[in-house]
Fold these 2 entries.
Entry 1:
Amino acid sequence: MASTVQMEAPHGQAESQAFLRQLRAAFEQLPHEIAVYLFTIRGKEDVFVEANRQVMRAFRDLTDKITFREYALDHEMASRWKVTEAPSLLIAPERYNIRWVGAPMGEEARTLLETLMLVGMGRSNVSEQSAKVLKKLDAPRRVKVFVSPSCPYCPQQAVNAVRAAVERPDLVSLEIIDIQARPDIAEQYSAHSVPMAFANEALIAQGAQAEEVFMLSLQTLEPQTLFIPDSDAPLVEADLVIVGGGPAGLTAAIYAVRSGLRTALVEADTLGGQVAATPIVENYPGFTQVGGKTLVDIMVSHALEYVQIFQSERVLDIKPGDPIEVRTTRRTFRTRTVLLATGASHRHLNVPGETRLSGRGVSYCATCDGPLFRGKKVIMVGGGNSALTEALYLHHMGVEVTLVHRRDKLRAQEYLIKSMKDAGIPVLWNTEVKEIKGEERVTAVTLHDNQSGITRDMAIDGVFLAIGYTPAVELARKVGVELNAEGYIQRDSRHRTTVAGIYSAGDVEGGYKQIVTATGQGAEAAMTIFEDLINPYWQRA
Ligand code: NAP
């Protein structure tokens, strides 16, 4: 991203002079005057007040574009600009809502210089993608960025926030708070490491972010780690359209683009599929232990190096032919091949109360909802790897969890079974859930012991379900792809389905359903597609 201030830091006296000349010239070009106001407490002089004065007088002496005035906190100008903290430095408050609480010392002098330049230009210089995100803002964002004079990463994040405030002065207000000058405010926000950013009192970022990621965090009011560029193109031509952004689809994308195929990946919901909701992954080579979401972020960042991802876009139908037409909720793709990597969705128990109380005590995602049940009593239904992984996660989080399994034997890995025994998680064997009860929220379950025949109610706060997955084959069905006896996509050893030009990979094919097998299948499918496009099997016959 191009910075506004492109000047080299001065080393010797000659360099200093040259730097000042450059600065003067840069200020001279600015179309807008910049009024800066310092607010202090009458009679209270300290190092921070003095630092504000010195830095601003130095800038003012360079250019007549800057006017600098100082007021006491009890002056009417303080109530005019709603200033309650001192020292506070307000930059062009008649046009923007940007202020320092403390002083722009040390590394923060860089932020101040960049701010003066942006305000003087009257332009945020944000990227096109950032501007798109900021355009979507429809409610105020009160931003606080905590910084310190010795933090080299802070200016990047503080400047991101300044750019947002300059781009959307109607909605974004900014306070840059120096934790050295104001440890009391830092303490109030538990800002013990900098930079740390809040918007509307919600933590949106720890550490410095790329500009687009910061803007997305600001828009969503949640910390974001990735930014996926958006596209408005109504028609996209491709060699391969991958449907599904789980491990299979992401790997296929990397392999396909590296082979030279024009590739697009379309994902309707969450990138990473089920892995994104897996608390801890312990069997993906290279990682002894890694959070599912972290692993997904790594894979998505890798894939983004190669492929354009069309997220939050649902494929509505696929018309086979040459080219194949893929219609989504936002555009049409014309492509030579399609890879269905649609994965699988949670299986339901289909008992009374399950649908009605879903999201009100019934959950399919321990990582997402676990924290809400800390100190409460829940059951985890299922006897496979997912149920055990998630039960362990809940247990370690401080949730009182009991495993409920319909048989007397688990189908999970030995390692997980041992971990569960070691953690002392109780198991109700041969037990089926017959009903989930509660008015507003889950309060009890009806359990049936299929050995003794006894049915009883158990008081409970939550029901977590991890009873396997149903393959997401709606699109495959629509396009006429044959399914096997278990309902998964029927395909040959090279991932070709029964419809020419349509391939499959990952959980939608059945089989082992491991992250590592899904990535392997994605790679295999992409290599087959590449070879078939050179020498189409459907024309060979
Ligand atoms: P799964 O292996 O299919 O196990 C589903 C469990 O739910 C089984 O114990 C099954 O009982 C039970 N179940 C199914 N329908 C039920 C119903 N209507 N009522 C009560 N119980 C029911 O599913 P998963 O555990 O979600 O795993 C899916 C795939 O992902 C597997 O291939 C698994 O190996 C993989 N995975 C791997 C890891 C890992 O490697 N660490 C972690 C998570 C998932 P029965 O045993 O009686 O059939």
Entry 2:
Amino acid sequence: MTKLIIDTDPGIDDAMAIFYAAAAPDIELLGLTTIFGNVTTKTATRNALRLLEKAGLDLPVAKGADVPLMLPPFTPSAHVHGEEGFGDIPAEAPKGQAITEDAADFLIRMAREHKGELVVCPIGPLTNIAHAIQRDPEFVKNVKRIVIMGGSLEEGGNITPYAEANIYHDPHGADVVFGSGGNIVMVGLDVTHRILCTKEDFTSIAGQSPDLGGMLQEMSKFYLHFYETVGKFDGCSLHDPAAVIACTHPELFETRSVPLTVTCEGEESGATVVDPESLRAGTAVCMGVQSEKVKNLFLQRLALLP
Ligand code: RIB
Ligand code: CA
């Protein structure tokens, strides 16, 4: 059983990842922390609470940083995820609220309480993780692993030709994480662009899971439309679910261990770069994936939901 905290900016594929974690029998979800990216941190917090309530999970949600480590805030990616984060699904207030502890403090405390066992899966910009590392030098030693959705080694970017969106939105934060010496896995565009779901896949999910799967099908329409406009893919990428699946099924991914730095300025800002001169510990970068197996796991487990 993997003890997991997801750091998230929900977000359509974030919702897919969180519902997957709710369904997975090998995941013990301990809570969610929130971050800006697809939406503002305030909206991400509301959406995270709403997703947990929808899934019938009474778990802590800790609100994260409102702005990147050093850059001014970016405008949320409304053209990819909709104004409210869930495509055309209207905003709805959750019943519960976030805990008083902020995301970094919650992560630090949970890493201490579950020393050597906690896997942290950031599926948004890495600001909260960077804050946790900067506040507590023991944090990266206390966690078992940090499995990041973000970055790109050879695939090129998705928000600029050089950068993947999560890294682009806080390159300084990402650089702190890759330089932390922790046990870091990067699930980037090199693999997530090979794991695609189609309209028919979401119809099948909704057929088996009318409530939660139905919600994903509804929001997927907006996301699929965005991918159609990009024109390169036959479906939409399962970015964030792939990272959650990598937490429990590393055997489905081939990794390359490389020292990484992040470009923090200029045209290539947000690029994840192999930098042997940095003398940094290697990040395990996913470069190969058994796409069909990852996708089937996603489809099979979501079918278990109501
Ligand atoms: O580049 C893909 C990532 O950016 C995903 O985490 C998606 O949710 C967006 O945040
Ligand atoms: Ca995300």
